[in-house]
TrEMBL record:
Keywords: Oxidoreductase. This is NAD-P-binding protein. It comes from Mycena rosella. It holds the Pfam family adh_short. It comes from the Eukaryota. Belongs to the short-chain dehydrogenases/reductases (SDR) family. InterPro entries: NAD(P)-bd_dom_sf, SDR_fam. SUPFAM superfamilies: NAD(P)-binding Rossmann-fold domains. The keyword Oxidoreductase applies. GO terms for molecular function: oxidoreductase activity.
Length: 321
């Protein structure tokens, strides 16, 4: 079936069931009412293993229990992962590397909520760490598990959940601010846009460096009222920008293209499993289809992708591919 703007995650899974069967999938950021949880929920019926992550043990247990209740046959494995802490990332990666299974698909979905300027324990801005540096380090450290899934008939995938906000709200990744955060120039929405630019530049460079051993993709799921916007700080920022109304509902007159959780997750699943994408590794997807033309020029520059990669390696102290 053709996939498009109204396709749901359930429909994509039904069409790609044979591609999902037997696969080991790791999804970051899987709390209830989020894209990661919805993705885990619909693929759990077919995947061999679904690893779900969260920084909070209690919330992670809630997600695990909900998934097991809905899909009794599912093989769900929780992993405590705080992407804002390099210590936590290294601990979680060591746990993954001790798994008996390979990782066929890694979905880097987790992100920090919009909020005031805050430094992580490692001295970097929280949004850029949770959405970029943390996932960069985690992906680098579990790379052996991903590469081990490669064979003559299958190429493992790494998927990054980005956003159209990378172009609407920002001007690309400010490498200086990534390395040396500046509270006086910080703006929550700009930091979010920088993170989402990084989520497009990184898979592009990952695909290039992997030389056919890994296919990486990025995507925009659309604007969705998920658990990401539950906090008062996020709602305040979105209200100030005119993206939601006073009652917390989507502002349909804003420049955002609002969609639903099932429709947003559908694009993640296409990026993770659709074999038709094998010929376009590194692609950016919107509404279940390749949409490289939608990538802003400041985020389509391979030179910038290389610079971001090199700086990220230095900041997390890991050589990656």
């Amino acid at each position: 079936m053709p996939f498009g703007s109204t396709t749901t995650a359930e429909e994509v899974v039904a069409a790609l069931a044979d591609e999902i069967k037997g696969r080991n999938v790791l999804i970051t950021g899987t709390s209830l009412n989020g894209l990661g949880f919805e993705t885990a929920r619909v693929i759990a019926k077919y995947a061999n293993l679904v690893v779900i992550t969260g920084y909070n043990t209690e919330r992670l247990k809630i997600s695990e229990d909900a998934l097991r209740k809905e899909v009794a046959s599912a093989n769900i494995r929780p992993l405590v992962l705080d992407l804002a802490s390099f210590v936590s990332v290294r601990r979680a990666a060591a746990e993954v590397n001790a798994y008996p299974e390979n990782i066929d698909v890694l979905i880097n979905n987790a992100a920090a909520a919009l909020g005031p300027f805050k430094l992580t324990p490692d001295g970097f801005e929280q949004q850029l760490v949770t959405g970029h540096l943390g996932p960069f380090l985690f992906t680098a450290l579990i790379l052996p598990k991903i590469l081990s899934a490669h064979n003559a008939s299958y190429t493992p995938r790494v998927v990054y959940v980005s956003s159209g906000a990378h172009g609407q709200w920002g001007t690309g990744v400010n490498l200086g601010e990534l390395e040396q955060p500046n509270a006086s120039t910080y703006h929550a929405i700009t930091a979010y846009a920088q993170t989402k630019s990084a989520n497009i530049l990184t898979p592009s460079e990952l695909t290039r460096r992997a030389g056919g051993r890994i296919h990486a993709y990025s995507l925009s799921p659309g604007a969705i009222l998920t658990n990401f916007v539950e906090s008062a700080e996020v709602q305040e920022a979105l209200l100030a920008a005119g993206f939601i109304t006073e009652d917390g509902k989507p502002n349909l007159n804003s420049r955002l293209t609002w969609t639903t959780l099932p429709r947003g997750a559908s694009t993640i699943i296409v990026a993770a499993f659709d074999p038709s994408l094998n010929d376009t590794p590194g692609a950016y997807l919107v509404q279940c289809s390749e949409a490289n033309k939608n990538v802003a020029p400041h985020t389509a520059d391979p030179v910038m992708a290389g610079k971001l990669w090199s700086l990220s390696e230095r900041l997390v102290d890991v050589k990656f591919l």
